[in-house]
Every structure is written in structure tokens, then in C-alpha cells.
Design a protein that fits this description.
Number of helices: 11
Distance between the termini: 38 Å
Radius of gyration: 22 Å
Shape: globular
Largest sheet: 6 strands, mixed
Length: 300
């Protein structure tokens, strides 16, 4: 359900790292009350985006607005409404025990919930007295999630949150984000390469490549429209099927399309029965979008 308002806006945002990497120009609006997943290969700019959103980096051009305000209009108030799980945790360098971190953060976050903090500790198998030194990457990840969620933010920024987590903890992460979104006025921006997280959590998916957005879609549009279909015989001109992406196999044949409904209708018209269908994997969709971008660049 669309809310009609944006929790995050990046307007003509650019960040340059010499000649090595350029982020943007970036135009992105994240709707309030929605989960938006950012999907892209390593080095595509996901972490740069999150650091810009946290004001840990400042844009060279353009403007970042959170809940309608820029950081120059009140950084403390804005960050008090954001829960942030960075790509790499450094809590083990900042304190001795989990409880020390919680005691510090509770002073800065106006909506901090001690009850939620205790519940999350129990859910992830940790204690207030758990020592941070020597914790595994996965356990530190749990600490990051606990602190971000206990702050009771309105905006949750998750940069590869399941990195280092075992399958059980990854499932808990999904459950906790769903629980978070059950509260009114909550928004999530999630950078991930885990397809299960996207399919189970996201409302929108934005594909990022070389610092640029190359496609933004409703999740259901991806699941329902981008499909692989298996057929016993080929149509007369398979490459002319609506949304045609590629063809594999020698019978049954596998055809990938980005417009399943129209492709299925065409196959039916030609009397060709579809044996099986499945949604294309996110990596396959991303690869196709990258190919289209490169082809367009060569023609321009």
C-alpha cells in the first residue's frame, strides 16, 4: 500500500573518489511504510549510499533528505529516528560488554525501549553481560541488530545485515524485520545479496551498478513478470516473444522473459503448452539489466 510520502530522498546526489569510483548522479525516493531492497554486486555503491544517508559522508553534489529534512537542519533529531546496521561492526572496539553499548545508546535515542532490548537479547541468545571481545562476526552482527531495533527507530538502514549469520539467525533477522514493520510508520532500506530476504521482506527492489540505479521495480512485478518457462517445442520466432531474454536447452526448452503474461499468451496462441515456470533469480535479472545498460551505452 502506497503512503504518498517519502522517508528518504536522494536528489541529484553525487560522491566522487578521485578517478576510482563515482556514485551517482542518484535519484531515489524511499516510500514511508515500505521495505526497499538495494541489490547490486560488490563495489556497486551500496555502502556509500548508506554512509551518505547517515551523514558519515557528505555528497559532492545534490541533497539528502530524511523525513523531509537535511542534516544541516538538525542532525541529532534525524539520527534519533534512524536505526543503522553498518556493513562492518565496530562495537567490539568501543566497549567491553553488550550492556555498555546499550547504556550509551539509550541516552541518545529518545524512543529507546529497554523492554525491547531485553526481548531481543533473549531472542538472539545474548546477555547484558556478554563480552564483546572475541565475539564472532555473526554474534557481533546480532549485537548490531539488537541495538538498531531496540532504538525503536522510524527508519531502519540495514547494510548486508545477514552477513556472518547462520541460517537460524538469518531466519530470526527476517522475523524481526517483519515485526518491526508491523508497527505503523516504519520504513526499511535494505542492502542485500540474499534473495530470500528480498522475496520475504521487500516491497520494492532497486538495482545498483557502478554507482547508478539501473532499475527500480515492485517486488511482485519481478516475481510475476520476470520468469523462466519450459516448453516442449519452440515457437516459430522465439526471439520475438514479448520480453524475450534468452533461450537454453534442446527440448524441453527454457525461455527467459521479462513479460511472462504476454509471452504466455503468445505461446498459447501458437498452441505451445508451458510445462513449468519459475521466477528468475535476482542475479539473472541484475545481469540482464547490466547487459541492457552496456548495450545502450554502446549505441549512444
Amino acid at each position: 500500500m502506497r503512503t504518498g510520502s517519502e522517508a528518504v530522498i536522494l536528489q541529484s546526489v553525487e560522491k566522487h573518489y578521485g578517478d576510482e569510483f563515482a556514485f551517482g548522479p542518484m535519484e531515489l525516493a524511499v516510500e514511508e511504510g515500505m521495505v526497499t531492497a538495494i541489490v547490486g554486486p560488490n563495489g556497486s555503491g551500496k555502502s556509500t549510499m548508506f554512509r551518505l544517508l547517515m551523514n558519515l559522508l557528505q555528497p559532492d553534489e545534490g541533497e539528502v533528505r530524511i523525513f523531509g529534512s537535511t542534516y544541516s537542519e538538525g542532525e541529532t533529531a534525524i539520527k534519533g529516528r534512524i536505526g543503522y546496521v553498518p556493513e562492518l561492526s565496530d562495537y567490539d572496539m568501543a566497549a567491553r560488554r553488550v550492556g555498555d553499548i546499550a547504556a550509551f545508546l539509550s541516552l541518545w535515542y529518545p524512543h529507546w525501549s529497554e523492554a525491547e532490548y531485553k526481548r531481543l537479547l533473549d531472542a538472539f541468545g545474548l546477555k547484558d553481560s556478554s563480552k564483546l571481545k572475541g565475539m564472532s562476526k555473526g554474534t557481533l552482527r546480532k549485537v548490531d541488530l539488537i541495538m538498531a531495533l531496540a532504538a525503536q527507530p522510524h527508519l531502519l538502514l540495514l547494510d548486508e545485515p545477514s552477513s556472518g549469520l547462520d541460517p537460524l539467525a538469518s531466519g530470526q533477522l527476517i522475523d524481526e524485520v517483519k515485526r518491526f514493520m508491523d508497527q505503523e510508520g516504519r520504513t526499511v532500506l535494505l542492502a542485500t545479496h540474499i534473495q530470500e530476504e528480498v522475496w520475504k521482506l521487500a516491497d520494492y527492489v532497486a538495482f545498483l551498478y557502478e554507482g547508478r540505479l539501473i532499475g527500480t521495480y515492485e517486488k511482485d512485478e519481478l516475481k510475476d513478470g520476470w520468469k523462466a518457462v519450459w516448453i516442449e517445442r519452440l515457437p516459430e520466432r522465439p526471439e520475438e516473444l514479448p520480453g524475450f531474454i534468452g533461450l537454453e536447452g534442446e527440448g524441453p526448452y527454457r525461455i527467459a522473459t521479462r513479460d511472462y503474461a504476454s509471452a504466455a499468451s503468445r505461446l498459447k496462441e501458437e498452441g505451445i503448452r508451458i510445462l513449468q515456470t519459475e521466477a528468475l533469480e535476482l542475479n539473472a535479472i541484475l545481469a540482464q539489466l547490466i547487459r541492457e545498460r552496456r548495450n545502450a551505452a554502446r549505441k549512444s
